[in-house]
Amino acid sequence: MRTAFYENKNVEGIRLTFCTADKELHNSAENYTFDIDTTSGQLVIEAVIPNIRINELVEKIQYDNDFYYELASRKFKEYTVHELPKGFYEQLSEQFKSSGITFKEFINSNLSKDQYEFTTLCGELIAYIDFNAYHKNIWNRYPDKRVLAKSAVQLQDR
């Protein structure tokens, strides 16, 4: 069986040559038995968890009464219950694609009230999702402007 680190589970044994001038350190490692049954991925996770538990941000999130992404969750629910005729969304999408302009220009163009409200709703939702979102500093209501992800791709707003 292969693990996340592509190691094979059929290891029979392991030998480590450990050299140090520090006798105490040498003695502490001399009779150590290595765990060859647990995957390296699991060992890494077990080694890192104590550091994660003492992280100030993680503690704040852990003991906070509010879900860390509550505002993003609410905005997503608002988006999912938004109801206009199906043709509305297809027409707006096509209008945006064929305009050849950026989202910033499009939202400030001559849109109907419904078009402007829905386009703004989309922008507000993206402000909680993407680090590089347009108007994130205005539409994202978190004081620290937290987002779900930082895009690895620079969007061209089209």
Task: Give the helices and strands, then pairings.
Blueprint: H1 23-30, H2 40-53, H3 56-63, H4 70-81, H5 86-99, H6 103-107, H7 113-129, H8 136-139
Helix pairs in contact: 4-7
The count of DSSP E runs of length 2 or more, i.e. the number of strands, is 0
- The total tally of domains equals 2
Instruction: List low-pLDDT spans.
Output: none
Global geometry: elongated
* N→C terminal distance: 44 Å
Mean pLDDT: 83
- Tally of DSSP helical segments: 8
β-strand percent reads under 5%
Question: Would you kindly provide a written description of the structure presented here, covering whatever features stand out?
Answer:
- With 158 residues, the protein is mostly helical.
- It folds into two domains: 1-64, no CATH class; 70-139, no CATH class.
- Helices cover 52% and strands 0% of the residues.
- α4 runs antiparallel to α7 (113-129).
- The mean pLDDT is 83.
Concise structural overview:
The protein has 158 residues and is an all-alpha fold. It is 52% helix and 0% strand. The protein is built from 8 helices and no strands.
